Amino acid sequence: MSFDLVIRGGTIATAADVFQADIGIRDGTIVQIGDSLGEAAEVIDASNRLVLPGGIDSHVHLAQPSGDGIVMADGFESGTRSALFGGNSCVLPFCLQEKGQSLREALSAYHALAEGNCYTDHSFHLIVSDPTPAVLGQELPALVESGYTSFKVFMTYEGLRLNDAEILATMDTARRTGALVMVHCENEDAIRYLIGRHEAAGEVRPKAHAATRPVAVEREATHRALSLAEITEVPIVIVHVSNGAAMEEIARARARGQKVVGETCPQYLVLTAKDLDGMDWEGAKFVCSPPPRDEAEQEACWRGIEAGVFDLFSSDHCPFRYDDPAGKLNPKGRTSFRHIPNGIPGVETRLPILFSEGVAKGRIDLPRFVALTATNHARTYGLEKKGSIAIGKDADIAIWDPAEKRTIRHADLHDGADYSPYEGIEITGWPKTMIVGGKVMIRDGELVGTKGAGRYVARTRSALATF
Ligand code: URP
Ligand code: ZN
Ligand code: ZN
Ligand code: ZN
């Protein structure tokens, strides 16, 4: 048997196992795993390296508009390049339906932006912001059938939030079509009440963002989302969980037999609300929702990662610039935290942070790392050929130097933002060589692949969907 590419001498990790073997790749697919594989057009020596499934970041925002004329700092080119350098071979950005827009219109706009520009494979979740009878009755079912098998609903954000009746109706469409619903759980009315109180007291700086979105706001909405999912009998993903109380809601729903997946993100492990209290509005660089909490909640999130309440670890990459007049802190943003767009960059640092803080520090083992960063994303979101190193899977592979020491510096990253909220964090372990669909895209830290090599992937239904 001959191969296009053989990866030789590495330590392979999957969600189940760690073992030594060579990997043979042909036509973009893993075709053999074993010893002394035959002839290959190209051989990569992976001795003293870890050979992992390419990361799948199932929660990123690229090229999404964010109101007040503020532009997201990454489109598909810079966003997927940054993802690739961070050890990812596939990302799942959101396609935002604007009010009055059909889902198909929204999708064709996002596809046009992505086409020919991606360094990683990609697929889209839909954001349903206008669940009209036509959208829920006709459009969405047809789109689920053609590979858009998950959609996100928001319980917060003006113009985006759905009320309970709309969430129930959207979940019912998921039930009828076998789709998976992702829910952003924060109680918008409670947030508005707290914003009013803070603004009246003259508290308009970024740290008030965290104070107006306390744990109770998230816990209540999480409980409600889980109840609505129980009533409609659908599996759901609770995205970007920031604290122990919301996590316990998930654990309790699971104990009752509900199908629910919890997701957490790096910001809830290594940032706190104190980061929003920087000098001269610097705290705006850490404004995201839910906000980072405190050390006790960081520990709670770690317990969720270790114990398996969280099955997904995603970045929620949502980048904005500051040095740009239309950036995150344009003049309106300086009048009140309420006008600072929510979101922080992190697609390139997600995997190194979890590897360094989790694997290198002995909190989780390699199979758990692989599950949290690749395998579970593929299973949850219907990426059948991705997320593992196994015969028949796409040859999406990240070769890591587990001993490399680095300090996170935005100057070394590849996104379109102008800062990293993780600046200065010391890291052990970094992805060095990236293979996407059998193509070497990064070799020993050097970009050798071209944009457009990353392809769109239509998805099957979630492994959680009972259809
Ligand atoms: O603050 C955040 N998380 N921004 C991104 C949008 C979202 O809610 O995921
Ligand atoms: Zn969200
Ligand atoms: Zn998000
Ligand atoms: Zn940058």
Automatic annotation (TrEMBL):
It comes from the Bacteria. The keyword Lipid metabolism does not apply. Residues 50-440 form the Amidohydrolase-related domain. The keyword Hydrolase applies. Transmembrane segments: none annotated. GO terms for molecular function: hydrolase activity, acting on carbon-nitrogen (but not peptide) bonds, in cyclic amides; metal ion binding. Keywords: Hydrolase, Metal-binding. Its cofactor is Zn(2+). The modification N6-carboxylysine is found at residue 152. GO terms for cellular component: cytosol. InterPro entries: Amidohydro-rel, Hydantoinase/dihydroPyrase, Metal-dep_hydrolase_composite, Metal_Hydrolase, Metallo-dep_Hydrolases_sf. Pfam families: Amidohydro_1. Carbamylation allows a single lysine to coordinate two divalent metal cations. PANTHER family: COLLAPSIN RESPONSE MEDIATOR PROTEIN, HYDRANTOINASE/DIHYDROPYRIMIDINASE FAMILY MEMBER. Belongs to the metallo-dependent hydrolases superfamily. Hydantoinase/dihydropyrimidinase family. This is Dihydropyrimidinase. It comes from Aureimonas endophytica. The lineage of its organism: Bacteria, Pseudomonadati, Pseudomonadota, Alphaproteobacteria, Hyphomicrobiales.
